[in-house]
Amino acid sequence: MVAIKDQVVLITGASSGIGAACARAFAEARTKLVLAARRRDRLEQLADELNQEFASEIHLLQLDVRDRPQVEAALQSLPDSWGNIDILVNNAGLSRGLDKLYEGDVQDWEEMIDTNIKGLLYVTRSVVPGMVARGRGHVINIGSIAGHQTYPNGNVYCGTKAAVRAISEGLKQDLLGTPVRVSSVDPGLVETEFSQVRFHGDAERAEKVYQGLIPLTAEDVADVVLFCATRPAHVNLSEVLLLPTDQSGPTLVHRR
Questions:
Q1: pLDDT digit string (tens) for 46-59?
Q2: What is the reported pTM?
């Protein structure tokens, strides 16, 4: 395990779920954290917790990754001590709806495409040139099993995560010959706010997704993200497909 103490880590979608768990994991590793999300109050609460537990150095960005001018302005205006991002965790993402394509809500499509694909691209485009110029850096994209295999009614969400997988591969190829690494961590079922967001706040429907099985936790995914980031410089964990033991594919789960 390579020490990453005092490296600057930018995490998008840091206010909850996998993003918040990654913030905690990197805080424990004594990195400096740039935490970005739309919900400032949730970020402030998380920062307070991390400060109390780890005395972390934290810079908060209230940021909607879908807004390109906002992304560019926020990242270009980071103070000097925070601007040299060493590790980027592209975590911001969501799913909306579970409908047949020909019955889908176009607004749901727009939100998924703008967040999962375009938002990831905007942040990556703003951060990676600095990594190349400094000769160090690591981009870790949070993908999904949905990027490996499409499941019924997953159509557009699966399409966005397939795009994340392709973008990760393309970026890796473009960075060949530089020291900058690219990893994709692709989880299966993780019990976070994901399903509540997908079902527009329907908690009862969201709970049924995880009934009768033991899903991954956000902390499980964060452990893998941290593991990727702490490998020696010559080692790149290119792609990690992470599933709960009770799952063997997008639609293959064991329920008790």
A1: 999 999 999 999 99
A2: 0.96
